[in-house]
User: Fold Preprotein translocase subunit SecD from Bacillus norwichensis.
Amino acid sequence: MMLTGPLLMSLIPGIVVLLVTWWFRRMNFSLFVRMTPGMLTVIAAIILFYVGYVNIRGFEGAAYGILAFFLVIFAVISFIMAKKSVKHST
Assistant:
């Protein structure tokens, strides 16, 4: 039960990040623009982990750390999606 809350909380921003990355890839933006959602997600995960570890502590802080972990997983998937180039068939 401890893992399901942070996992479900990370699904909404994670899916949004993946959809934005996919849309940026389809629009053939530069690599930096395609990687921006993943970078912002990693920054948010670091901030969440810091707040959970330093300010909140305890079991509630651990939930923030688990949430940050799942957000980093979505960011890694976003980076992998951003690196792939789109092959257009003409």
